[in-house]
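Box 3.1 A note on notation
Throughout this textbook, protein chains are presented in two layers. The first layer is the amino acid sequence; the second is a token string describing backbone geometry. Keep the layers aligned when reading.
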Amino acid sequence: MTGETFEPLGVGLGKLLRENKFSVPNHQRDYSWKEEHVRQLFADIFDASQRGDPYYFVGLMVFLHGQSGELIVLDGQQRLATAIIFLSAVRNWLRQYSEKQEDASRIQDWFIGSSELGERTPRPRIVMNAANNLAFSDYVAQAVPISDITTALTKLRRNDRSRRLLECAVYCHSIVADKVATFDNPDAAANSLFEIVNYIRDCATVVTLFVQSEDLAFTIFETLNDRGLELSPLDLVKNFLFSRVSNDAAMLRDMEDRWTQMMSTLANVRADNFLKAFWTSRHGRIRTGHLFQTFKRQYGDIGRVNALSSEMLEASEQYAALDSADDPVWAPYSVGARNTVRSLSVAGSQQAHPVMLAALAKMEAAEVERLLRLLEVVIVRYLLVIGGNTGRFETTCAIVARKIYAGEVNTATEILQELRELYPGDDDFQRSFEIKQERSPQKAQYLLRMLEREARRREFGAAAEELQPGAVSLEHILPKNPGSEWDAVVNADATLEDDCTYRIGNQCLLTERMNRQAGRRYFPQKLEFYHASTLRITSQLAQYSEWNRSTIDARQKILATLAVQAWRFQ
């Protein structure tokens, strides 16, 4: 927003940084801005500076005065941290030129962090929460090469809580690189950066609001959120819970510790999805937009709030394990149960997560194992193969989850009755499987693995050897991009590729080595690899002399008969 029509009563963002030190409470959310948010902020600032606008309104920031003179950031950490990260990228670019070292040092001391006498490591202007502070100190406050930041980023887990922060650092370096690339010499490029830094210092204006307590701040946040402030339901619930215990220092400290543990536990999953799954597992279906207000009504008194934070911490550990069969949560369960967890993760079990959470909280281990198998069968039959309505499945799962948590149903057999309408009969399932296509390699491989297991069970009984994870890869018999040797088959059936490439009957499992050797060869040339395979449903391909629509149909009918037994709950 430009300053063409009003003069905001605020302070320049850079001036705010220069004159203060900041601290982000540990219970505040992590740095979470995506590239699109960073791009928009600096595109707007660059444009406003280019036009000569006297102001660019960054927005409102809410602070609490800390006991050591720092400003505790209650709202605004994303913008403050992003500005510092950008300024650190400017500093790093300047440091490559000996004549610009003094300017780089000024940016460092004014906006990023400075060292006291006798200290070598700079103290950042802003202390981030516990999850982000080390990365911020190592890769933003300290001047390190962009290559170091990039290397650190590649080593982070996909959902590491500092990933967004390092991604922002890499992106800000690219913004600076793109800007200076338009100039012929370093002096002109540096002057363009100085203009931006000065604009951020004096004209990128922040309106500051100082509150007496976090309780008041949380009330403000709720009002602002009604008017478009982008806080997730999890953020709002957190703010509400902390506001309820803000006058009890010991309780607040305990809740802060539990919340920090919970967010660390949820680092590898989508944390915002946890809240809805948690509520649904206890109380039944709810719309995301109603979560916060419903939480407020349900957990109004302090006693319930404190107990809730402990319950959420335990549930977060279980939720993080729902798609991770190697998680310690599953240690008391059998190998078969852990394999089912893997299968559920591939087949797509998100709508069933509330059921799984409720079961882990309320059901005996043996019944949990049977329930996991039931969910796998229903998901494959109803959703993956027949293509049933996901909304209906989600609604039913919400009802079942509430009944499990309330103790109204206690066994997998009872839950089967609740899910009966979502359990397709054998005939319907078999007919749907006969024409099933699957474009997801992970799901196709899962289906074929289970069919192979059933084929081995039929041949060897209980002594059948399990197919080991990672031992095979997916092969399309009619290749996705067939070579000229397939011309006769493809030309004889104009829609063969569109209709049959992703049919389950056209896919098989091979070892990696065999798959590479088979490649896009014509079917008769692949027969030696199929014949040599130890996999039952792959070696059976050697009985066919040609490969076309008819043979694909015939093979898939055979696989469909296996599927009826492979996905049956008994």
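Residues 230-428 form one domain. The longest strand covers residues 56-65.
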